[in-house]
Specification:
Elements lengths: L4 H5 L4 E17 L2 E7 L7 E6 L6 E2 L9 E10 L7 E12 L15 H6 L8 H23 L3 E2 L5 E2 L11 E2 L9 E2 L2 E2 L10 E3 L4 H11 L1 E9 L12 E10 L3 H22 L1 H11 L3 H10 L3 E4 H10 L16 H11 L4 E7 L15 E9 L3 E8 L4 H10 L8 H5 L8 E7 H9 L20
Length: 461
């Protein structure tokens, strides 16, 4: 019989005939016996293969059994007398499918820096760290869909190419078929009427606005897809292409929004702890000590809810000297968020009612006309992990906010229409998938939790 190594390692070593396919991680020879460590990506654990030259009938097909070579091994699954594994394969036949010459294979048995591995992103998934990231990423994707599907949310695919700027920051990648060297002009300006779409088009920074249109028809929806931001930030926290999870809920105010977001995070973290124990043990021991305890603490905690004003008062009264001084009206920085979660409350914190001047145009304005019904979820070790709000449901107020933010209401005519025809209170939140993975795994650079990072001056593979 055959199977994934993850399945085989859970079987009893009772002499069952086994065939396994994978890649050689290590090879060791001793007195007529060759020991191979084989991995197929299904688990972080390797399967030991023992090739005994004195065993009758053993067949070793031509080819060098070097690190990185691909093999098909047939033999008997037996209990292992050695330490470190419960079972092993006593090989009857080993076929080398593809060789990996020692002098040209970059992943020899030694530690490689993550910086080096980014240069060989086409091979880095074969390492323990990146194999574990890939499995956690896959399990987390499954959990995201499971959470929303179990609660009756409809999955909506929002467009990647858009004519509107959701965030109003202008940091968008333009999409055009016009000749960049000599575009057609009219009155000294680019004539977008001759472009493919007949108007200026960009890659989306968010599926939220389109998602709201479906929430106002289907009540509960979520989007989960790629987004793009042309933010010139060459840091360990920024990507130009990343994935976003964005649920939207009609007939839901800010309080219901916070309830769903808190439940969502706990569900995702619980799923990963239960379904990826070996990978999480690896991250806890090799990447970030205490990460499992941190996630378990979040899962079992009741999140603290405070207003922005209360948060600022806590920071000011703490007597701490921050790199970014604190006063009412500033956008809270990571150092402020970590201080609140790690020193003041020692819990995940949800902050609400931010100054409207630092938030997006679509957020509902409070009665004081100074704050909006925004909410950010902060977690220990990271700071902000979720951002959301109750959306503005009044047509005239929303139009005024669009103008106030220097945007053109004509670009949002369809979005304003939602407030004309059967408007309802509705809310939603968003979180970056890669930042979520980075938090769960403890990986220090966000470029190491996506298969092929797209960032400033980074467009390889």
């Amino acid at each position: 019989m055959g199977g994934d190594i993850k399945q085989i390692l859970a079987m009893p070593g009772d002499g069952t005939a086994i065939t396994v396919k994978g890649w050689v991680r290590t090879k060791r020879e001793s007195k007529g016996v060759t020991f191979l460590e084989i991995n197929d990506g299904s688990t972080i654990k390797n399967l030991q293969v023992v090739i005994d030259d004195d065993k009758p009938g053993v067949i070793k097909a031509p080819g060098d059994l070097t690190t990185g070579s691909s093999v098909v091994v047939s033999g008997m699954l037996i209990q292992s007398p050695g330490q470190g594994q419960a079972v092993e394969i006593s090989a009857d036949r080993v076929d080398v499918v593809g060789t990996a010459p020692v002098d040209g294979y970059a992943l020899q048995k030694k530690r490689h820096s993550f910086e080096f591995l980014r240069e060989i992103a086409h091979l880095r998934a074969r390492t323990n760290s990146f194999g574990a990231v890939a499995r956690v990423r896959s399990a987390m994707s499954y959990a995201i869909h499971s959470f929303f599907q179990e609660r009756g949310f409809i999955y909506v695919h929002t467009p990647i190419i858009t004519g509107s700027d959701c965030e109003g920051a202008g940091e968008m990648f333009q999409v055009t078929t016009l000749p960049i060297e000599k575009p057609p002009l009219i009155n000294g300006q680019v004539d977008y009427s001759q472009d493919f779409f007949g108007k200026k088009a960009s890659l989306t920074v968010s599926g939220q606005l389109e998602g709201e249109t479906y929430a106002c028809a289907l009540k509960k929806i979520y989007t989960f897809g790629p987004t793009f931001r042309a933010e010139n930030s060459n840091t360990s926290r920024h990507l130009a292409e990343f994935w976003m999870i964005e649920p939207e809920m009609a007939f839901c105010d800010i309080h219901g929004n916070m309830d769903v977001a808190e439940e969502f995070l706990k569900y995702i973290f619980r799923h990963i702890l239960e379904q990826c124990p070996d990978d999480m043990e690896f991250f806890d021991s090799r990447i970030n000590k205490g990460i499992i305890d941190n996630l378990q603490h979040i899962v079992t905690s009741e999140f603290k809810r405070i207003t922005y004003t209360e948060a600022v008062n806590e920071l000011v009264s703490s007597g701490m000297t921050f790199e970014f001084p604190v006063s009412w009206g500033i956008d809270l920085q990571s150092e402020h968020e970590k201080f609140l979660t790690e020193k003041v409350y020692r819990l995940p914190v949800i902050i609400t009612d931010y100054p409207k001047a630092i938030k997006a145009f679509y957020m509902k304005v409070n009665e004081d006309n100074k704050t909006v019904r925004a909410m950010d979820i902060l977690v220990p070790r990271l700071g902000e992990i979720v951002g959301g709000s109750e959306r503005e449901s009044d047509h005239d107020t929303l139009k005024a906010r669009i103008l106030e933010c220097g945007l053109d209401p004509d670009d949002y005519w369809w979005y304003l229409d939602l407030r004309k025809f059967g408007t309802v209170p509705h809310s939603g939140f968003g979180l970056g998938f890669e930042r979520l993975i980075q938090f769960v795994t403890g990986m220090q650079n966000i470029r190491d939790v996506i298969p092929y990072p797209r960032a400033v001056k980074t467009l390889e593979f």
